[in-house]
């Protein structure tokens, strides 16, 4: 039996290889591109600095991928050695910061999503005279924790800005879709929307299963026909929302946070009204660059105040400029 | 039991019905159904019912395989992420090498069956519980999904494949829908019914079905009477992988792109569906119809809450209560049936 099975497996492998050869050159695949990573980049470590970046990224999120892309580009431009690590669990993130302190890096850039849990490690860093920069989250706490600078968007401000635009356009009953249960940042965005449009309602969906997102949204839209705006808090969820709206023949308008290629295309096609972009690429890039400038030149970007990377609106007016950048994973 | 010996106690029709694994789940499903009919006005339309069926089908298809595997006495924790692995293999191979999507789909199928084979082979050869082996596979696949996707596409989501050759025919098979009046019927619902019927037939009417019950109920005596233990169990793991591949194909051809980090957590939904549907965690007992009802209960509760318009923050808590209730009703009905059997 085992013999016959392996022979079968070999047959499958062989036919796959043959098919591979036969099927080459089918349209619609990867475009033949030349490497456009730009000349003149410095060799890693040529500046002599090592910067540790520690985030609360949950692996597999396109948003964090852009933060990382920005940080890597900055490291390349400035000849910095970048050490990236992440853990969504606050206590483990604290250990990672401690780790960076122990390995005596030149600077630390970290998200301060759970300031209380990270305070001890950040203090250990400043005690060891390692400069710390906060980014993405922790705008209210970064100074008291001892971080020098901060780059990010204020979630509540971003949510309120979105809500104001909805209210101005006559929206009364927006649905705010939360794709990760219990996320403080996502709740803050929805609360911001609600502060501008009191009729805002939240809906919890399982962001790890697109099929479930669509059917949950579809169910909500057919239950409540008075929903006039849908606010998704991540670009992939916006794509699911479009499918749900079509299935429930909903007349609601869609707005989203963040961007990816498909969402950018949908903005151009008018299917998504606008996106609130907090420019994750800039967050990653600035977190590394500001440390570089501080180490090299003693600069203080922001002059003691947080530097906001958003909310930046992407809509029909400026999508033509931005669309190409989403394809390069920088917007 | 085709040949019932004369000295055995013959059961009345009602007892025989009550002794079936899916009856508890069926009673629970009816109660939950009536509950939502009264609590959620939006639940009372044919459109809503078919949305619930769609939601149930994407869980239910893999749950059929997981149910069979659990009857055979094993677990598979890699069943959730393998759906994403299946889609990623197909989309990235075709996108990167400019292949026809059909070729990618078949390579992906072979790859998924291979993973199922490895799961089963390791469990049988090492004697390590399947819980641990497939937990390992779960992490390997989760990491590889992310790592390989990033390497190939430079991002953590797969490329859009809707312009590649073969897309139309494949999406017709895996992700099409048609209208009956105002009702949208997704093809996964049809496939789900077919797979359930097939699995029920195999379990109840074929020699393979007897083998599955035997290897789950008592592996040692099954081996002693000549049941091909290893082949049956490896086959069951490969069956789970097949259904995982199938749902992965649905996700890929419905959404054109996949996020590499998705699929995590669904393995528990499959197991929940199987358990609610009357499958014993210890193996040897259960049937395919029950698993389907379990998936339907999940679809109903997860969407019923939304149709009722309740505070979404309570979603998971409510879902948990519903599932516990379902299991309790299930248990109660089973007890009632066994109590009468003695008399």
Automatic annotation (TrEMBL), chain A:
PROSITE patterns linked to this entry: PROKAR_LIPOPROTEIN
One of the record's GO cellular component terms: outer membrane-bounded periplasmic space
InterPro entries: Bact_Solute-Bind_Prot2, Peripla_BP_I, SBP_2_dom
Protein name, per record: Simple sugar transport system substrate-binding protein
Subcellular location: Cell envelope
Entry superkingdom: Bacteria
Family the UniProt entry places it in: Belongs to the bacterial solute-binding protein 2 family.
Gene3D superfamilies: 3.40.50.2300
Predominant localisation class: other
Signal peptide: 1-23
GO MF terms, alphabetically ordered: carbohydrate binding
Species of provenance: Actinoplanes friuliensis DSM 7358
Domain Periplasmic binding protein: 51-297
Listed SUPFAM superfamilies: Periplasmic binding protein-like I
Keywords: Signal, Sugar transport, Transport
Pfam families linked to this entry: Peripla_BP_4
TrEMBL record, chain B:
Subcellular location: Cell membrane
GO molecular function: transmembrane transporter activity
Statement: the UniProt record of this protein carries the keyword Membrane: yes
GO cellular component: plasma membrane
InterPro entries recorded: ABC_transp_permease
Regions crossing the membrane: 23-43, 49-70, 104-124, 131-148, 183-203, 234-252, 264-281, 288-308, 314-333
Domain of life of the organism encoding this protein: Bacteria
Pfam family, one: BPD_transp_2
Keywords: Cell inner membrane, Cell membrane, Membrane, Sugar transport, Transmembrane, Transmembrane helix, Transport
Membrane topology value: Multi-pass membrane protein
Main location per the UniProt record: membrane
Function in brief: Part of the binding-protein-dependent transport system for D-xylose. Probably responsible for the translocation of the substrate across the membrane.
Name this protein carries in UniProt: Xylose transport system permease protein XylH
